[in-house]
Amino acid sequence: MSVKSLFSPLDAIKFLFKKPHTVRVPYEKKEPATRYRGVHVNDWEKCIGCGNCARICTCQAITMVPIDTIEPKPGTTNLRPQVDYGRCSFCGQCVDICPTGSLKLSTEYLIVSPNREDYVFIPNLNRDSGPGTGWESDIETHLLKFDKEEMPERLPEERKKDFDPVILGFADEQAVVEGYRCLGCALCVDGCPTHMFIPEYIEKIREAKYKDALDIFFKNNPLPEICGIVCTHNCEDACIYSWRGQPVQIRYLKGFGASKVGNYGEVIKVDKEKKIGKRVAVIGAGPAGLTLAFYLRKYGIEVIIYEAYPEPGGMMRYGIPRYRLPEKVLRKEIEFIKSTGVEIKFNTKVGREIKLKELLQEYDAVFIGVGFHRGLTMRIPGEDAVGVIQAADFLRDVSMGKEVKIGKRVIVVGGGDVAMDASRTALRLGAEEVIIMYRRRWVDMPAHEEEKREAKDEGVIFMTQTLPVEIVKNEDGSIKVVKYVKTRMVDRGGRRPEPVPIEDEVYEMEADTVIQAIGQRADYSLLNEEFKGKIQLDERGTRIIVDENGMTSVEGLFAGGDVVNRRGDIVSAIADARKAARGILKYLGVR
Amino acid sequence: MKTRYFEYFIGPQHPGVTGNMSYHLWARGDEIVKMEPSVGYLHRGFEKLMEQREWIKNVPMVPRICVPEPDVNEILYAMGVEELAGITPPERAQYIRVLVLEMARMAAYLFYFGGVAGALGLYTIPQWTIGDRDYILDRFEELTGGRIYHIYIQPGGVRRDIPEGFRERVLKLMDYLERRLKDYDRLMFYNAVVEKRTKGVGVIEKEYALQMGVTGPNLRASGYPADVRKDDPYLVYDRLEFDVPITGDGDIYSRMLQRRLEFEESIKIVRQVLESIPEGPIMVKLPHPLEWKVPQGDVYVKVESSKGEYGYYIVSDGGVKPYRIHVRGPSMPHCFQAAKEKIVGMRIADVPVMIFSLDICPPDIER
User: Residue A221: left (phi > 0), alpha (psi -120 to 50), or beta?
Assistant: First the structure.
């Protein structure tokens, strides 16, 4: 044994002065790491009760329990996750799939109790260790994709030259990718006016079972491809992804699915010959009228549609320009509905060729489904000038193929979808400069975001907070200049801030054409004197009031679409028509 | 009646680092004549459980197949699913994965040293090594949010990026561990008791090891150079410089020393990774995970774990859940073949040392 080994035990003395690994005196509390996965924290305000956390939990530690004190907002539930800490493995996948980001794991990890029940609780914000700590939901590392699949569209320079469709449609693989984003939470179903079974059909579409998808579409929408292109997609606004990212493009997925089936008749079977001896007259071959006709034909009720114009489609044909809704699609779906045995009498305006009273006597029930074809005027001096036109008339004339004269500089007044359609149509007809004048701000425009964006891309100039006050005429009656003022926004506590004109400074702009797109209303000439008092209208006299069956205050007279609902879009018309169809079936004692 | 054997049981109560398992021993005097290992007391049935869960839901479950080194399961599951689905994880994620795997290897080796030394009755060593392992776990906690089960690697990449200051702290830890190795050497590898008890004991010969399917450090300790990281490189191991040391005696001491030498290589790898880790994304987004259908096919993926070759055979029938997953844990041949036969003839006191020296872990046998 060497001398060295004799002394080597003394070497251990150096450890006397080292900090020990574990127990330290005085006691030092172990602080968990910032990212530590401890117990759950849930922000009840943000949580919508979708249950995805419970679905992904591999330990089945999460159950959704209803909370009585929570008043669920539309499209959400009052369910909140309850966690069983006997099962939870603190993996944090519930956090990574939480679409709203309400759930997180805090750095708190101690639950000490002699009672078993204390280990099962409904997390709220009580144990929150503060923002920036714990395992938090993060869009970058989220299990879900918050970015949508971009819909391919033609370039603005190219597309503004003709009336061919702007969007090109999804490729197959794009539809699958987009379809797989859907969580199946069904919040969108509440958003859709006609409550389409969206998660179900998206599942079929991503599996390429288009015929099954079509079957699901037709349960509550007989115009799926049209809606798949031009719907106002309230469903997407309700989509859970829209809270933090871009919603699933439900509309385009539906359009994609429907476009994959060439002949609906192969999938949707309606007996053309079936007649049960009941007859219903429908006024207007628009979305409401066509929908009603389809659902009544399924029960063998004879349907005769009276249409004032020479082609079917109503506002879908005469309000929406062809670059948004191609003729081919329009024809395909309307022809299918016609093929179920619906008779359409064209160029027959009720109130002119035939009286409403006669229809009521002749048929078992009558449905009014007319659109808002009559434009409102600005009520400013000089609007009778030649070249001041209505957007509704303008779009209709273009759709009908009439020759429409349009000047070099076109001013469109208004900020809704009709204003966008009118301005973009004017561009396509060869206007060199199209200016949209709108009295509120860009964000207040009722037009949809993508419509606004597309119009801007195509070169439409937006003048917001601008209000025309007078149109000065030339001697020949044509427009000389448009006088306008700017406005400022004043919040009066209403839904939107009010525009107040700044009267001091009046500007002038030369223009060749002024298109008014400030709103439309129905042509109620079909309700002649006899019905004026009988049919109950709302206080402004623009809409017909119907009961829960879609029936007006006149027995046997039903109504739906623009004349009934405030939204004034296709899908709401379809929803109304379905309601009225149920009402008529009940009224006639069929179902 | 003449007493021919004494029967002894080690386990099934937790006999140490290995987890609950039972060794049924028959001894004549101090000499073992028969050993019957028995597993199935904990962490069972993963393969079947995995068939009943969507692909993403298996991510939190797979690490439980191995407690001391859970990350190999995560990486294998992720690699297998990625290969089936045709996903390539981003470069940065691959580097982070190597970092995690090597840190886990070191943690497992520290645990191993403690286990063997504990079985020898030298309790200072486990106190030191398990204490030092905790410093690695601290870094894991910082990176992954968990200390033992990290649930960090998932198909498509890793779940979170490296936090700020993490790199420096890991480098500091590496320096510390490197310094500590000298202490371990003096405490353990130049320790007369350890040498006496382990040198020439429990020898597994090279040919025998190869026949029995022994892999990893146990095989290298028998003198056969085989390492999945070198032979069939996965992730970015082919871009990293490291050696595979070979000891060749095949005894318990050699198996310990083998791991001690590999520990240094792991430190080397971690330093390289921290130096060369590229910037960029850390994950590829999967389709909606609960509806995700992995394309039909089957794949075998393998990695070098601290125990040996770890493999997953994954079969997908194109559904939302795996059709079958087979886990090839390294402990099965180590326990049921090598240990079972080599323990015969040993003294009772050497049995735990032998078991721990082979790093047998019951969950990956009864998975």
Answer: beta
For A455-509, the pLDDT digits (tens) are 999 999 999 999 999 999 888 888 899 999 999 988 887 778 888 888 888 999 9
A274 CA: distance to closest CA in chain B (Å): 42
Nearest in space to A368 (alpha carbons), one of A150, A525, A146, A538: A525
Residues A210 and A172 both lie in one domain: yes
Is residue A557 domain-resident? yes
CATH number, domain of A577, equals 3.50.50.60
Burial B147-182 (b: 16+ CB within 10 A, else e): bebbbbbbbbbbbbbbeeebeeebeebbeebeebbe
Domain membership flag for residue A526? no
Do A107 and A221 sit in the same domain of this protein? no
Beta-carbon count within 10 A of A503 CB: 10
Which domain CATH number covers A208? 1.10.1060.10
Residue A439 near residue A351 (C-beta atoms within 8 A)? no
**Is CATH 1.10.1740.10 correct for B6-364?**
no
Instruction: Give the A:B interface size as CB pairs under 8 Å.
Output: 93
Same structural domain for residues A491 and A415? yes
User: Min CA distance, B146 vs chain A (Å)?
Assistant: 6
Question: How far are the Cα atoms of A36, A57, A80, A124 from residue A118, in angstroms, in the given order?
Answer: 22, 20, 17, 14
Residues A390 and A492 in one domain: yes
Which residue range(s) make up the domain with A346? 279-373+549-587
Same domain, A170 and A262: yes
pLDDT tens digit string along B121-154?
Answer: 898 899 899 999 999 999 999 999 999 999 999 9
Residue A150 lies in a domain: no
Residues A361, A381 within the same domain = no
Across A346-396, where does the E strand assignment appear?
A: 365-368, 374-375, 388-390
Nearest Cα to Cα of residue B154 among A67, A401, A93, A538: A93
Q: Which residues of chain A does B53 touch, with a Cβ-Cβ cutoff of 8 Å?
A: 58
Q: Does the distance separating the beta carbons of A89 and B60 come in below 8 Å?
A: yes
Instruction: Calculate how close chain A gets to B291, using CA atoms only, in Å.
Output: 7
Which residues of A are less than 8 Å from B289 in CB distance? 56, 97, 143-144
Q: How confident is the model at residue B11 (pLDDT cuts 50, 70, 90)?
A: confident
Predicted confidence (pLDDT) per residue in A176-210, tens digit: 889 988 888 788 888 899 999 999 999 999 889 99
Domain assignment present for residue A485? The answer is yes
**Number of domains present in the structure of chain A:** 4
C-alpha A176/C-alpha A206 separation (Å) is 5
Residues facing residue A521 across a β-bridge: A374
Q: Which A residues 6-65 touch B at CB under 8 Å?
A: 8, 11, 21-22, 32-37, 52, 55-59
CB contact under 8 A, B61 and A58: yes
What is the pLDDT at residue A29?
A: 81
Q: Are residues A364 and A382 in the same domain?
A: no
Q: pLDDT for A243-267, tens place per residue?
A: 888 999 999 999 999 999 989 988 9
Is the minimum CB–CB distance between A208 and chain B shorter than 8 Å?
no
User: CB B145 to CB A181 under 8 A?
Assistant: no
The answer on A233 and A284 residing in a single domain is no
B57 CB neighbours in chain A (<8 A) are 56-58, 93
Report ipTM for this prediction: 0.89
**Pick from B58, B143, B291: CB nearest A180:** B291
Q: What is the pLDDT of residue A527?
A: 78
State percent of chain B over pLDDT 90.
Answer: 72
